[in-house]
Design goal:
single chain; 160 residues; mainly alpha; coiled coil
Length: 160
């Protein structure tokens, strides 16, 4: 098993080494080019000038970070203002809905009160009619009793 690995692995290993050497050669060439470029373009300054330049550079980076933070806060503020405006609109809509519901409740209450009054009037009318019916019923019974009494006397007087 080791022979197979070394046989096929050796070809892959050599290719890898060749690729790595080519990469290292290219990197060395790139480093040489970069070093030459730096030597041509490099500016040498004293420590005080370098310190001031470093401070300015640091301040510029800080300013850039702060500007980004301000932009982020402005976006958050705009979003909060929009959310507050939506909340106010929803509140007004809810208040209008509540007002409409209250008015509807008042209308329904008035309808119920009116219906109750009409019902009470009908009940009074029914009671009055019931009393009238009872009164007439009593009159009818009285008349029937009178008729029977008179009828009984007539039958008794005709038979005598």
């Amino acid at each position: 098993m080791e022979e197979k690995e070394t046989g096929s692995g050796r070809g892959n290993s050599e290719e890898r080494w060749k690729g790595a050497i080519v990469n290292l050669t290219e990197m060395a060439s790139n480093l040489d080019s970069l070093q030459k470029l730096l030597l041509k373009k490099a500016v040498f300054v004293d420590e005080e000038t370098f310190a001031k330049a470093s401070l300015s550079s640091e301040q510029a980076r800080t300013i850039k970070v702060l500007e980004q933070r301000v932009e982020t806060l402005e976006r958050e503020l705009d979003a909060a203002i929009s959310a507050a405006a939506r909340a106010r609109a929803e509140k007004r809509q809810a208040e209008a809905g509540q007002k409409a519901a209250e008015l509807r409740a008042q209308e329904i209450t008035k309808e119920l009160e009116n219906t109750t009054k009409v019902f009470e009037l009908h009940m009074e009318e029914l009671r009055a009619k019931q009393e009238e019916i009872n009164k007439r019923d009593n009159e009818i019974k009285l008349l029937e009793a009178i008729i029977q009494t008179l009828g009984g006397k007539e039958s008794g007087s005709t038979t005598v």
